[in-house]
Amino acid sequence: MNTKLTGAQFADMMVCAASALNANKQAINELNVFPVPDGDTGTNMTMTLSAAAAELGAGEWTRIDKAVEKTASMLLRGARGNSGVILSLFFRGASKSLRGCETATSLELAAALGDGVDAAYKAVMKPAEGTILTVARCATAAAVEYAADETGVEGMLAAAIEAAKAALERTTEQNPVLCRAGVVDAGGMGYIVMLEAMLASLEGRMQAAGVPMEDEEDTHGADFGAFDTEEIKFAYDTVYIVRKNGTPLDLYRAYLESIGDSIVISEDDEVFKVHVHTNIPGAALTEAEKYGTLETAKIENMRTQHAELSAARAAEGGSEQPYKNCGCVAVCAGEGLAGLFRELGCDGIVTGGQTMNPSTEDILREINRVRADNVFVFPNNGNVIMAAQQCARLTDKNVIVIPTVTVPQGVTAMLEYDRDADPVVLEQTFCEAIAGVHTAQITYAARDSEYDGREIKAGEYLGLLDKALVGSCAELGALIAALCTELEPLTPEFISVYFGEDVAEADAAAVAESIGAHFPYAEVSLVNGGQPVYYYLISAE
């Protein structure tokens, strides 16, 4: 029995907890319907804690306060999603409580865990019951009660786990969304997985190298199709870090409440981190600049994530899909484009593109979901290719990145997809297909600037062809005519016009008709891509 916990023991416990979360993340994802049914709580908690585990596993920790402080610091910067930010708050509060402690008794550790829960409740602007907060509060209360009479750290953790499990069962009746889905809270389940791994580490049943725990209980997953995508009031899960300039955050908290929900703000002496669900993430980031310097930001479309989960469940018919030879993952932004890639056979969609480049972790998550030995990835943006290539060394699957630099190239490649083909032959086929695709992009100029030696005025339509500037015009019709002139030497046989989220279908049809009149011998098709940033993506083959 351990009556005191050392820094080295704590570090091992955190590494084991990260490993256990990773082993159980999909089961946790299956429960994730609150606050939004986007199925990523397990992934977010795993990635959040893994950021700290990597540092803890590589160092030597003689003092528990330093180990917990490092954990809190890494979690703050690595926190992903609502659950990840709350998790970081638990350890931030615990770190303050244990400051100055070389070791921690069971009572000191229990009190520190309780302080962490208090810190999280204070930071969450509208805490709801039946969540990870509820489970953690009940667990720490039991831990403090136990430690008041007994000295063993193992017994204290066991008491916390018992109370946490009882609290988790009650979340279904406490939270209407969970009740509707018939599941327990995903974050609460993740918290219990962590506590059990911590105890297993301390008792020698699990090692920091990641020896698996006992088989997890079978958990009933949520029916994501029972929720309508349009029920998601605020579409964008937005997480960002700002380096402080000293301005109090009270007004900023009020501002965030006016544009979103699920707001959590955590901070240390140098930075503050925000989690918010909103429909205008850009506005949240712009307002944040009044309070410091924006360091990092991550934005995910939860409506797209939910739609993908529902579609996958419908396709699976409630059972696991068989393994196949080849699978595909595509990067794109816009529900129309995501739907098109799925129709063409893509197994996974990573939301991202221009101004919103996904990380290697984002792409890897989708790769690992594909039930295939060989997975082709279509980055569809030059800035995403390198992140995609990094995935090859992080998974046992054979990852083949097709160097698509535009979405139309990815679409053309997918038209040649044969999931049973030899991957070497299929890679050659894909690369040959994209070689003949030319892409025009029409967006707007955000500011006065100079590009390729040409002067551009703010607010003008801006046209590119294969990344080279065609021109900028105040009138869209003039720019379309200039693009058609540039396309003439290519004598295209097929032209596809993908219109964006800010374009009316009637206006897009007029543009397609204008292009068709310029190329009467070509087959012109119009597609609602729904993409941000670009009014039009136009491919010519």
Would you give an account of this structure?
The protein is α+β, with helices and mostly antiparallel strands and 541 residues long. The protein has helices at residues 7-29, 41-58, 64-78, 81-97, 106-123, 132-147, 153-174, 176-181, 186-202, 250-259, 281-288, 302-316, 335-343, 360-369, 385-389, 407-414, 423-435, 476-487, 505-518; strands spanning 4-5, 104-105, 236-244, 260-267, 271-278, 292-301, 324-332, 348-351, 372-378, 398-401, 438-444, 449-451, 454-456, 461-465, 468-473, 494-499, 523-528, 536-540. α3 (64-78) packs antiparallel against α4 (81-97) and α4 (81-97) crosses α5 (106-123). The longest helix is centred in the first third of the chain and has 23 residues, at 7-29. The radius of gyration is 26 Å and the shape is elongated.
What does the radius of gyration come to? Answer: 26 Å
Distance between the termini: 72 Å
What shape does the CA trace take?
elongated
How much beta, percentage-wise? 15-25%
Number of helices: 19
The computed structural class is alpha+beta
Looking at how many chains there are and whether they match, the oligomeric state comes to single chain
Give the strand line-up of the largest sheet: 15-14-11-18-16-17
Give the uncertain stretches in residue-range form: 209-219, 222-229
**Average pLDDT score:** 85
What composes the largest sheet?
Answer: 6 strands, mixed
Q: Tell me how many strands there are.
A: 18
Helical residues, percent: 40-55%
In short:
With 541 residues, the protein is an alpha+beta fold. It is built from 19 helices and 18 strands.
